[in-house]
Specification:
The complex is a heterodimer of chains A (103) and B (472).
Chain A lengths: L2 H19 L7 H11 L3 H11 L3 H29 L18
Helix pairs in contact in A: 2-4, 3-4
Chain B lengths: L5 H21 L6 H22 L5 H21 L5 H23 L6 H28 L13 H20 L2 H6 L6 H24 L7 H23 L2 H24 L4 H10 L19 H9 L3 E6 L1 H5 L3 H13 L3 E6 L9 H8 L7 E3 H4 L8 E5 L8 H4 L18 E6 L19 E5 L2 H13 L2
Parallel strand pairs in B: 1-2, 1-4, 2-3, 4-5, 5-6
Classes of the chains: A mainly alpha (103), B alpha/beta (472).
Keywords (chain A): Cell inner membrane, Cell membrane, Membrane, NAD, NADP, Translocase, Transmembrane, Transmembrane helix
Catalytic activity (chain A): NAD(+) + NADPH + H(+)(in) = NADH + NADP(+) + H(+)(out)
GO biological process, one term (chain A): NADPH regeneration
């Protein structure tokens, strides 16, 4: 793709990134960081492309390590963020019986 | 399989990118946060389906098998981790993401031709490796598998400069045109030289990550995690440039940009600068406020006395700190709050932005103990309320309520925003000992006539107070 097109995407994405998180209360800093952390796990797309194009064993092994690491980042990131957030509940919704009963 | 045309692929990647933007936006408010995260996960699922349907992939069975293995590792780890240990798990996830980006760039080097692509490869390899090894060190520090205090060895700063220069040299070799490298008359051809330089970059980057994070003190580790998170985002964005993949570019940039803002906000909330966090240990810590324990008298009392103070108050503001988190006392604390509310006493939790181990970590811990988030008040909201509070109950916190931050210029914490517990009519500290907090300075409030201390583990103390309140 044209370098200038990619640069355009990059600059616009920087501004969107700045905009969406400004003025977020510190209450949500941890889940927000965790959610952003999950999103960069999308490097899995890149790892899969590279692994799918590997034509020698060394390249394939390195690429599959990348696939493994990226999967852990992506899947683990979204699951742990969800786990943090399922605990945020208001006064209205009564605490229902939760799994584990870790009291 | 190449079932999708390039147009459809681009369109669906755009949908995934929009999902990520909506996810970050949604995570900014308690009401929409959980949905936001699920939208982000949906975007990731769309992107993964698209990559499998749009690309001719060899080794398909192996790839799917490894993804399955990764999922089987990640899901139980995320579901079973204790909430107090969650920051280090996030650090670890961030690290493997950075490592994956570095490896992808390393492998794409041989397919790169343009100057821009070479630059992006060099950047991704170095930054991804720093994020990987730096995150591993933050994990080890938070898990207390290594000392949490800053670690600096003689010549540390010089070694960092040296290693960074080697990294820079490797980057220059990656970026140089092949004709220039060939003109140097080396025994190896240009492609091999670049490959070696990239591997050197990977090793040097990993070393640099370790060297940079070792000098960071325990309380500053969250800021560094956030910084490394932003770094991984940028590395992923650069790998998008290498692969010519717009989704990676946009998603990585979003994380890099939002992560940078978040890092700055966290540092601000802790009264620190990001540079001071990384390099403060080299300047030699401020010696102001030596830790000489003073012999002044304090008023220590029993759980029954504390229960009476609480039981006959109208308004109580609870200030939970790290001590509450390590003692796993959040459930007992929540039960005490419920018991007091049942007696018609108004209970508010005043949460310092950096209470716990990460900004917002205390909110997660209390939410886990079923404290409704309406009862949690942020610093700016709760500070005016201390004047009308009968009792401020400080559980396992010290530096964040130290008035020296306002009154003593030259104190290491001077200028840090604090909770104004000194304005309350009575102050009760539940503390393990008179040992100063992380900043290593005394808190004059402990010696104030209106202060009562109850020594002991936060959970044991709260259990005793809870029992006494129930018997009032």
């Amino acid at each position: 793709m044209e370098a200038i097109t990619l640069l355009t995407f990059f600059v616009l994405a920087v501004f969107v990134g700045f905009e969406v998180v400004s003025k977020v209360s510190s209450t949500l800093h941890t889940p927000l960081m965790s959610g952003a952390n999950a999103i960069h796990g999308i490097i899995l797309v890149g790892a899969v492309i590279v692994a799918g194009a590997a034509d020698d064993v060394v390249t394939l092994v390195i690429a599959l390590i990348a696939v493994l690491m990226a999967t852990i980042n992506l899947v683990g990131g979204f699951v742990v963020t969800d786990r943090m957030l399922e605990m945020f509940r208001g006064r209205g919704s009564a605490p229902t019986a939760r799994e584990g009963g870790d009291r | 399989m190449a079932l999708l045309t390039p147009e459809w692929t681009a369109l669906l990647y755009l949908v995934a990118a929009v999902c990520f933007i909506l996810a970050l936006k949604g995570l900014g408010s308690p009401r929409t946060a959980r949905r936001g995260n699920l939208i982000g996960a949906l975007g990731a699922v769309i992107a993964m389906i698209v990559v499998f349907l749009s690309t001719e992939l060899d080794n398909l069975a192996l790839i799917i098998g490894v993804i399955a293995v990764g999922t089987v590792i990640a899901v139980p780890a995320s579901r079973m981790v204790k909430m107090t240990q969650m920051p280090q798990l996030v650090a670890l996830f961030n690290g493997v993401g950075g490592g994956a980006a570095a490896l992808v760039a390393l492998l794409e080097l041989e397919h790169s031709i343009s100057l821009g692509a070479y630059l992006a490869v060099a950047f991704t390899v170095l930054v991804g490796a720093v994020a990987f090894s730096g995150s591993v060190i933050t994990f080890l520090k938070l898990q207390e598998l290594m000392p949490t205090r800053p670690i600096v060895f003689p010549g540390h700063a010089a070694v960092i400069v040296l290693v960074a220069m080697v990294g820079l040299a490797a980057a220059v070799i990656i970026v140089l045109p092949e004709s220039t490298l060939a003109g140097l008359g080396l025994a190896l051809d240009a492609v091999e030289v670049k490959a070696i330089a990239a591997v050197v970059g990977l090793v040097v980057g990993s070393l640099l990550g370790v060297l940079l994070v070792l000098p960071v003190g325990g309380a500053d580790v969250p800021i560094v995690i956030s910084l490394l998170n932003a770094g991984t985002g940028l590395a992923v964005a650069a790998s998008g440039l290498v692969l010519g993949n717009t989704l990676l570019l946009v998603a990585g940039t979003l994380v890099g940009a939002s992560g940078s803002i978040l890092t700055r906000e966290m540092a601000k909330a802790m009264g620190r600068s990001v540079a001071g966090t990384l390099f403060g240990a080299f300047r030699g810590g401020s010696s102001a406020g030596s830790t000489a324990a003073s012999e002044r008298p304090v008023r220590s009392s029993s759980a029954d006395d504390v229960a009476i103070l609480l039981g006959y108050a109208n308004r109580v503001v609870v200030v939970p700190g790290y001590g509450l988190a390590v003692a796993q006392a959040q459930h007992t604390m929540a039960e005490l709050a419920q018991t007091l509310e049942a007696k018609g006493i108004e209970v508010v939790f005043g949460i310092h932005p950096v209470a716990g181990r990460m900004p917002g970590h205390m909110n997660v811990l209390l939410a886990e103990a079923n404290v409704p988030y309406e009862a949690l008040a942020e610093m700016d909201e709760v500070n005016p309320q201390f004047k009308t509070a009968d009792v401020a109950l400080v559980v396992g916190a010290n530096d964040v309520v130290n008035p020296a931050a306002k009154t003593t210029p030259g104190s290491p914490i001077y200028g840090m925003p604090i909770l104004d517990v000194q304005d309350a009519r009575q102050v009760v500290f539940l503390k393990r000992s008179m040992r100063p907090g992380f900043a290593g300075i005394e808190n004059d409030l402990l010696y104030d006539p209106k202060t009562t201390l109850l020594f002991g583990d936060a959970k044991e103390s709260l259990t005793k107070v809870l029992g006494a309140v129930k018997n009032l």
